[in-house]
Amino acid sequence: MQSTYINQLSKLENQEVVLKGWNANKRDSKGLVFLTLRDGTGFVQCVIDLNIVGEQMFEDAKRLSLESSLSIQGKVIKNEKQFGGYELQATSLQVIAIAEEYPIGRKEHGPDFLLNHRHLWLRSKRQWAIMRIRNTIIFAIHEFFQQRNFVQMDAPIFTGNACEGTSNLFETDYFGDPAYLSQSGQLYGEAMAMAQGLIYTFGPTFRAEKSKTRRHLTEFWMIEPEMAFYDLKMDMDLIEDFIRYVVSKVLDNCQTELQALERNTSFLERVREPFIRMKYEEAVDIIKGEKTVNGKTTIQILEEDLAALKDNIASAEKDIAEREAKIASGSLTKGEANFNRSKIDTLKNEIADLLEKAANIPTWLNSAQNFERGNDFGGSDETVLTRMFGQPIMVYNWPQEVKAFYMKEDENDKGYVKGVDLLAPEGYGEVVGGGERETDIERLKRKIVEHELPMEAFEWYLDLRKFGNVPHSGFGLGLERLVTWICGLQHVRESIPFPRFYGRLTP
Ligand code: 4AD
Ligand code: MG
């Protein structure tokens, strides 16, 4: 019989099928083995009954260690209670390979252990769900731009010029000359937009970020559209349509994966509403608590958050104490005691999370109140600002000092450039950076000098202003930042198959 895949089972109810995959989990009781099979497309519980499969196959099933591979035949039964909605009543099975003792068990592992085993960790249900969502996002990105007649063009990885400042360039030896790994395809994107009108790049980019934060990778994927004849307003409209399209695609197509991640999607749903747009100066007023949102300042909101966190911690502690007392009393059955113990573990983890959040709030409050007007936003400033709205926010018109050399100055707002950052809610912060490009060649030259960039490396770029100079705009979306937000991850390192960040190059 030809084999099928788990994500096809809904079309095969009550039919006999063959599945090939791996043992993701197994428990046996008398005469029955319950095996969770994973095959890449999903997870399904297989019920292996001694009376149906016979002694030999039942013994085979019992000796299947975690991650052993097998082929299994059986009948597809609807079961709403199971992940995916179906289970398999096995009629026969063949072992393909018995796995050695699998290093990733059911107990909690630290992040370094898991990262060292990333090649195996990718098989876990959470990581599986994240990668499927990442795939949906990538597909939706191409769909969005292709439907709007954008041409995908690829920028080089080896470059001779810095796009986003020289502080985080990776230098390589290019046959005796220095070359840099691309920080952004944008400058090439501008050249390509002058040839094709509407383009987007989708490629790896590199930044030597010498710090471990939950938002920074050294190698990440960037999507960079560039549009001839677009001004900042059109650029922001496109960013908004784009993010709404991609997030909605995930909400519509990845229910199973979001459920596997236990993702609360209420904030994601709000992408369907118009995004908030504000100038940098207004954002600063709000961050510093000088301007209210819905009658409240950032200071008030954060203090309320802190009080609520403390309440939650107290009630979790009370819950733990009660459960411990019950266990100690000896009145519980073994099963009940175990249930309470595992509940206590979960509560302890929750408390650790809550304590971490509570510890952050005074720091945020302090840095928000002391924010120096004119500075770039730090992660905590973004968190504080987005906390006030719970929706994506586009902050535009930034002080020129904090932005890249290529940003166009606003003729009505001297000293400010037409850049825009899109900040995601729930503390995720910047996911998109972009803006309108400077068209004044003299100002560009001045900026290149001010930023201490080598003029020779930009000669070709300046040609774009000499030959058919037009207003144009673009933006860059960091794929991993978007995956992290949509999946509700704690850290960007889980958003890419094999993360690269400061201190990590393997596996
Ligand atoms: O804001 P950035 O630096 O903008 C640019 O590179 C422009 N040239 C884009 C353009 O206009 N074409 O980076 C764009 C996005 C950020 O908003 C963020 O999502 C992501 O790239 N990003 C990173 N993601 C992960 N790790 C890092 N170290 C990142 N640095 C930037
Ligand atoms: Mg940026």
Characterise the protein shown here.
By secondary structure, the protein is an alpha+beta fold. It has helices at 50-62, 111-116, 118-121, 125-147, 186-196, 232-253, 255-260, 266-269, 280-287, 298-329, 334-369, 379-387, 441-450, 459-466, 479-487; strands at residues 3-4, 16-29, 32-38, 43-49, 69-78, 86-97, 151-152, 158-159, 171-174, 177-181, 198-206, 219-228, 276-279, 393-399, 416-424, 429-436, 472-478. The strands form 3 sheets. The chain has an 8-stranded mixed β-sheet with strand order 7-11-12-17-16-15-14-13. The protein has a 5-stranded mixed barrel with strand order 2-3-4-6-5. Helix 4 (125-147) packs across helix 6 and helix 11 crosses helix 12 (379-387). The model has no long low-confidence stretch (mean pLDDT 95).
Which features does this protein show?
8-stranded mixed β-sheet; 507 residues; binds 4-amino-1,4-dioxobutan-2-aminium adenosine-5'-monophosphate; 40% helix; 15 helices; 5-stranded mixed barrel; alpha+beta; binds magnesium ion
